[in-house]
Task: inverse folding
């Protein structure tokens, strides 16, 4: 037990309030788990790592604290996770079950839920784990319905409950006033549009003056999906402002809706179903200005709709792998006889690396093609040796574990037989009651030890067998990539794009390629090294 590496995981959702929040607070969870650790000798002398997600829902597992912990689990730095109760791990019945029944056992993780009296190494407890996770899932869905109903009531009262629009700030929970720093920018965008300026040119003008775009001004710099992207004004940001009725002094609620709990995308609600209240705050533009701008945008939209449709039809799926190395945005492809790629940020800037970041598609494909062939050559060199070593190592290990299991089963049976003999000796008065009791307790302890060893060996065997299946699947995938000698060049290029995760382009002579098979090969090579050691 002394090699156990412990992690304690804490989570609190924003929706949990009142007495429930007090009982589930991060502080409360920490106290319960640390008390549990101190009260159990097998953990008391060990140190632990703490991971927490304060303000994150339990209906999905895309939480920074949980993902950081999982990353250390995969690296073998953690092999025991302790939580206050199963709802802290998550509230999605299917995903929680998947972690408990498949992911954690496969990774060799011992999982303990203190309040549920659940320990995966024993698989015993005073409750039904499946029923408990189902109840947590139901609670989350019921809570979601209550929250939605409450929000709908506040919307109908005219309360402002959505994000504060750019150009405004809140002076109370539901009260907006124009922001002296950004309201003039909104006014200017409408005036420039009325003067005939295109949205792309407006974005370029604001960027040249280093005016922070809405996404920066609202302090979203730390969002994970934006961390590698340079934030600038874009055509879409301008259009979003020009279409927003809130600048008329209206509150517009229920414009989008989630189809399910914590869905990653929202469904747009038809305008006639919006909950609109007029004169809820001071307007930034007049009704006449707003309607005139809508008329201009409508005319522009009619002129470009056919051209945009053509672009979508021509856009190949393999064009989606190219990203600008400077701003992180997906690169766009031009339409014409000689298509080329360019950074979309370059449209909105006067100078800088993004403006100059362009390359010819055919020239780039020739470079990628040569690099891809070299990568496959390296894979081929490793595949055969990996296959041989995988088979020998796994088969030997499985054989050893099967022998162990057989040994423990025989031991278990021999102890049972011995207990029968001891009882017969006691009944025939060959040994005293005290001797019989002492020998019986000693045998029971030995039986429990054997049972524990038998269980852990079976779990290890299952883990090795699952690992063998995974390794075989990964090797099969690598073999498919590597089998290219009889492939036509056209098909080979298609396969190449399927193998590319993304290409970061800094210039036509400076690129970084991320291959989908990199992680597969690294995983197999690392596993092979550990087996050799």
Result:
């Amino acid at each position: 037990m002394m090699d156990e590496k412990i992690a304690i995981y804490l989570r609190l959702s924003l929706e949990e309030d009142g007495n429930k929040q007090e009982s589930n607070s991060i502080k409360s969870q920490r106290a319960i788990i640390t008390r549990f650790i101190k009260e159990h000798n097998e953990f008391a002398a060990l140190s632990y790592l703490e991971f927490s997600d304060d303000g994150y829902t339990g209906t999905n597992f895309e939480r920074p604290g949980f993902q950081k912990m999982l990353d250390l689990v995969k690296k073998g730095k953690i092999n025991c996770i302790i939580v206050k109760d199963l709802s802290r791990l998550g509230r999605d019945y299917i995903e929680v079950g998947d972690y408990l029944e498949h992911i954690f056992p496969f990774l060799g993780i011992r999982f303990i839920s203190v309040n549920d009296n659940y320990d995966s190494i024993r698989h015993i407890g005073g409750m039904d784990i499946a029923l408990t996770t189902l109840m947590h899932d139901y609670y989350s869905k019921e809570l979601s319905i209550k929250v939605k109903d409450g929000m709908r009531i506040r919307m109908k009262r005219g309360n402002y409950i959505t994000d504060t629009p750019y150009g405004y700030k809140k002076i109370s929970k539901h009260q907006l006033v124009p922001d002296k720093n950004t309201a003039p920018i909104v006014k200017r965008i409408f005036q420039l549009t009325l003067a005939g300026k295109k949205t792309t040119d407006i974005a370029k003008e604001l960027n040249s003056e280093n005016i922070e775009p809405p996404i920066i001004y609202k302090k979203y710099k730390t969002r994970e999906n934006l961390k590698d992207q340079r934030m600038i004004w874009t055509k879409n940001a301008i259009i979003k402002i020009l279409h927003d009725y809130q600048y008329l002094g209206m509150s517009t609620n229920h414009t989008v809706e989630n189809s399910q709990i914590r869905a990653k995308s929202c469904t747009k609600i038809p305008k006639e179903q919006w909950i609109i209240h007029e004169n809820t705050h001071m307007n930034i533009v007049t009704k006449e200005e707003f309607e005139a701008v809508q008329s201009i945008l409508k005319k522009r939209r009619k002129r470009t709709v056919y051209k945009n449709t053509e672009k979508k039809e021509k856009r190949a799926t393999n064009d989606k792998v190219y990203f600008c190395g400077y701003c992180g945005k997906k690169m766009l492809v031009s339409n014409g006889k000689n298509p080329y790629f360019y950074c979309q940020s370059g449209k909105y800037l006067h100078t800088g690396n993004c403006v100059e970041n362009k390359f010819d598609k055919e020239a780039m494909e020739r470079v990628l093609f040569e690099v891809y062939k070299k990568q496959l050559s390296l894979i081929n060199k490793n595949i055969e040796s990996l296959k041989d070593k995988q088979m020998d190592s796994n088969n030997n290990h499985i054989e050893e574990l099967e022998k162990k299991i057989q040994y423990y089963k025989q031991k278990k049976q021999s102890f049972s037989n011995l207990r029968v003999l001891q009882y017969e000796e006691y009944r025939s008065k060959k040994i005293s009651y005290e001797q019989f009791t002492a020998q019986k307790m000693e045998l029971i302890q030995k039986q429990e030890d054997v049972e524990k060893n038998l269980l852990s060996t079976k779990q290890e065997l299952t883990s090795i067998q699952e690992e063998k299946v995974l390794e075989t699947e990964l090797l099969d995938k690598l073999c498919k990539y590597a089998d290219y000698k009889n492939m036509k060049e056209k098909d080979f290029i298609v396969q190449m794009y399927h193998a590319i995760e993304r290409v970061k382009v800094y210039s036509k002579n400076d690129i970084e390629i991320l291959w989908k098979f990199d992680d597969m090969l690294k995983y197999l090579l690392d596993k092979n090294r550990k087996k050799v050691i």
About this structure: The longest strand covers residues 500-507. Confidence is low (pLDDT under 50) at residues 17-23, 124-128, 220-228, 306-316.
